[in-house]
Structures are given as structure tokens and as C-alpha cells.
Write a structure and sequence with these properties.
about 250 residues, alpha/beta, Rossmann fold, 5-stranded parallel β-sheet, 9 helices, about 35% helix, globular
């Protein structure tokens, strides 16, 4: 198990704290009922569960793109559920980095510019990147090289020209740049072979540990659990699930 980074004024001890969360669509019955979910600074948590169990819904609630019926979601020292939608968008840009299953890169932008998008909408992350690496360019290059994209000319290539595996690494660098408090990864290793998956997870985990970011990693691949500090089954975490009611 990796040692967790100590909390600082810039990196809270608890990047994510969910309490008494309830969510359902419209007037439908409650889909998610989560008494507590807590991630410490630098902690790597593996979240699994079958398709349809609510993993993506939970990620959207944490990200602020969905609002719960009740309960509390704190990102660091900010009560996200108390914010209007526009301020939740700002909080997401300032405090969170995302690696999506479909990567969501802008195909016409270069590799470098896709990575720098992680700081374009956040003064906080921009300042952190410059403080650690001296410049945004240096921060992007360091992360890309750490993730195995060490060929300088590739930094200027449009994202559309990259292989799937390369796009995955660019998406990870974009999520990590500027030391967000919380990194959320939704099935990000599906396009990598076993060796590449392990290397990818090791590098992402090391970067989160160095910066103090908590990592919430969602996957159905239970073979990856060994690379994490702990694993959570959403069916057990969710007290609205049939398994929890049994």
C-alpha cells in the first residue's frame, strides 16, 4: 500500500467526502443510497460493480453534473451540493481531473494543447503546475514523458492521429496536470494490454501520491485491484441495492 501524501493548506486531508447521499431519476425509487464514502489525500481507491449498478451515476454526482435528492458531497473544504450549477462547473475545473473511457480529447488540437486544457479553465491548477515545473509547457512535457510519450515531435501532432493507447495517456496527462485534489478515472485502461495497464496504473498512482491527489478509479476488471490501496464494491457501498437490502 502506498504512503498517503500529507495534507497541506493547498491539498486537503479529505479530497472527497460523501455522506447520506440519495439519488433517483425523477420520481423513480432511490437508485443510490450511500451513507459514507471518504477518500484520503494520495489514496488510490478501486470501485467496481456490474453494469447498471450505478458506477457512472455516482461519478456524475461527485463531478457535479448530477444533483442528489439529499445528502452531502464535499470536495476538499467545499460543500459541492450547496452550489448552483455554474459554481459546481467551476469547482470541477479547479479541483478535479478526469480520465474518461472515451478520452474526450479534442481531435484537432495538438497533444500538448489537449494536456494544457487541464489548466486553461483553472487558475488554481495553472499556478500549481507552474510552481512545480516552472511553466505549463514543462509540466505537460514531464507528464507525457512519464506516461511513455517521450518522442518530442508527437507533442505537436493532432490528437486524431494518435493510436488509442496514446490517446489514453494524453487523457491521463490532462487529468493530472496542475495537481487536482481528486482524479476520477472511468474504465481508462480498456484499450491497453496487460503490461501497458500495469505501467499506466503505476505512473498515475505515483503522480497522485506525489501531488496528494486522491484517485477514484472505476473498472469492471478485478485483476487491477492489486494496484490500489483498497477496493470497494458499489453493491455493498450502495444501501439501496438489492444486495444491501437482503
Amino acid at each position: 500500500m502506498a504512503a498517503h501524501a500529507p495534507a497541506t493548506a493547498d491539498h486537503p486531508e479529505v479530497p472527497l467526502l460523501v455522506r447520506d447521499l440519495e439519488f433517483g431519476w425523477g420520481r423513480d425509487p432511490v437508485l443510490l443510497r450511500i451513507p459514507e464514502l471518504r477518500l484520503a489525500a494520495g489514496e488510490r481507491v478501486f470501485l467496481h460493480g456490474p453494469s447498471g449498478s450505478g458506477k457512472s451515476t455516482l461519478l456524475n454526482l461527485v463531478a457535479g453534473t448530477l444533483a442528489p435528492r439529499s445528502g452531502s458531497i464535499r470536495i476538499g473544504d467545499v460543500e459541492a451540493t450547496a452550489l448552483p450549477a455554474r459554481r459546481r462547473d467551476r469547482l470541477r475545473a479547479e479541483r478535479m481531473g478526469f480520465v474518461f473511457q472515451q478520452f474526450n480529447l479534442l481531435p484537432f488540437l495538438s497533444v500538448r494543447d489537449n494536456v494544457l486544457l487541464g489548466c486553461r479553465f483553472s487558475k488554481r491548477r495553472r499556478a500549481r503546475a507552474i510552481a512545480h515545473d516552472g511553466s505549463l509547457e514543462a509540466a505537460a512535457h514531464r507528464l507525457l514523458e512519464a506516461l511513455g510519450l517521450a518522442d518530442g515531435p508527437i507533442f505537436n501532432r493532432p490528437a486524431a492521429e494518435l493510436s488509442v493507447g496514446q490517446q489514453q495517456r494524453v487523457a491521463a496527462a490532462r487529468a493530472l496536470i496542475g495537481e487536482p485534489d481528486l482524479v476520477i478515472a472511468d474504465e481508462p485502461t480498456s484499450a491497453l494490454d496487460a503490461d501497458a495497464r500495469h505501467g499506466f496504473l503505476q505512473l498515475v498512482g505515483e503522480e497522485c501520491a506525489r501531488s496528494g491527489a486522491a484517485l477514484l478509479f472505476v473498472s469492471h476488471d478485478r485483476a487491477l485491484e492489486a494496484d490500489f490501496d483498497r477496493a470497494l464494491d458499489l453493491r455493498t457501498l450502495n444501501h439501496a441495492a438489492p444486495e444491501a437490502r437482503a
